[in-house]
Design brief:
Length: 393
């Protein structure tokens, strides 16, 4: 069992869910062979590395060695922009390197070894971003990428989604930074007991494995008490890892034992985090002491997760966790996300909804725009140091 002991340091988090967002993509994939580069932009004159990802029991393996994902959710939509606006959340093309280059450095300094991206254009060139993540094999950050596939589309738009995922795999399969593909996010919806849904879902996973057999396939399910995992087990033979978004608080309680009863595949916790807010007269504001309470929650839950990790204890179920998220997202609680509740309805302001109470967060409210480890202008909150102490050694 992993044991981590660190000083109690403040903390915070970040969030991102592409609900209601429309991602579009041109049709023709394009891929340029990646060039390994260091962060100082010098090229590495060596053969292209190969990264082979496999699973064995509850373990994820990289080149036959157990791997634990110290992951980060990352989709850096700038203030004033929205995923419905071009480039539709895809800030991973070279023209946006001024955004992602300093962010990658911050993540590497924290000890992050994996990034989860919800969606990008399957046919655009992302090699500069991937090269910066891989860094010539020097403290590489591996990348899992998905494509927008909301509830209903896996049946209603199956052919189109299958084509886009095939393009995604074809355009990235040879890059050593790529660890695998997430099959959309929180997209089971009301189809948990629908055999047609699971059949199509597995067909997408099968297509990805056919094109990129040495990369992982995984989900981003809601935490529904393992209903989706149990329903999908017999169908998802081409799925490598069950990924589940878990927001239970500073402890995940019986999550580990109930998962082990439900599946023998490895488990990624694909979202985990806390908003850095407290409410004053019903309006969110920044938590005092740089969101130290979030840092304490982060320390507790990450230590618990590491104590249930499979990289050094093969019988434990957790193969990685992806923090939710790297930075605040000011677009999230914009109309129509307010659903009739009072909010400013602007992608240029820090908005909120009135009725979203939860005991699972230190500030007690699900303030979607405030989950960042960093603020939108990249000021670190307390949880940055907590994660650096846990992961940076």
């Amino acid at each position: 069992m992993k044991k981590f002991t660190i000083l109690a340091i403040p903390a915070v988090i970040l969030a991102f869910i592409f609900a209601g967002t429309q991602f579009t993509s041109p049709e023709n994939p394009a891929f340029t062979k990646p060039v390994s580069v260091n962060e100082d932009r010098t090229e590495i004159q060596s053969p292209q590395d190969v990264t082979n990802w496999t699973t064995e029991g509850y373990q994820v393996k990289l080149n036959n060695k157990p791997f634990f994902a110290k992951g980060m959710g990352y989709q850096p939509v700038p203030v004033g922009s929205h995923p419905n606006d071009y480039p539709n959340g895809d800030y991973f093309m070279k023209e946006y390197s001024n955004i992602y280059e300093p962010d990658i450095k911050k993540m590497r300094d924290m000890g992050v070894n994996a990034i989860k991206i919800y969606s990008w254009y399957p046919d655009k060139d992302h090699n500069d971003f991937l090269n910066k993540c891989y860094n010539g094999g020097n403290k590489p950050i591996y990348v899992a990428v998905g494509y927008f596939m909301p509830p209903g589309t896996i049946i209603g738009e199956f052919d189109a989604k299958l084509k886009l995922f095939k393009q995604l795999a074809e355009s990235t399969k040879n890059h050593p930074a790529i660890m695998g593909y997430m099959l959309g996010n929180e997209n089971v919806g009301g189809d948990v007991n629908n055999s047609a849904f699971w059949t199509n879902y597995n067909k997408i996973a099968a297509a990805l494995k056919s094109i990129a057999p040495n990369k992982l396939t995984f989900t981003g399910l809601v935490d529904d008490g393992m209903a989706s995992v149990k329903a999908g087990n017999n169908y998802m033979v081409n799925l490598d890892v069950w990924g589940i978004n878990v927001f239970r608080g500073k402890t995940l309680g019986n999550f580990y034992s109930t998962y082990q009863s439900a599946s023998k595949k490895p488990c990624f916790i694909t979202e985990l985090g806390f908003p850095a807010t407290v409410r004053e007269n019903g309006v969110p504001k920044m938590m005092p002491d740089n969101a130290d309470d979030v840092g304490e929650y982060a320390e507790d839950v990450l230590n618990e997760i590491h104590n249930n990790s499979s990289d050094d204890e093969p019988d434990d179920p957790i193969a990685g966790v992806f923090w939710f998220m790297f930075c605040d997202e000011w677009w999230k609680q914009e109309c129509p996300a307010c659903y009739g509740s009072p909010c400013a309805c602007s992608k240029s302001t820090h908005d909120f909804t009135k009725d979203n109470y939860t005991d699972n967060f230190p500030g007690k409210y699900w303030d979607e725009e405030w989950f960042g480890l960093y603020t939108a202008d990249r000021q670190p909150r307390a949880a940055v140091n907590v994660i650096k102490e846990l992961w940076g050694h």
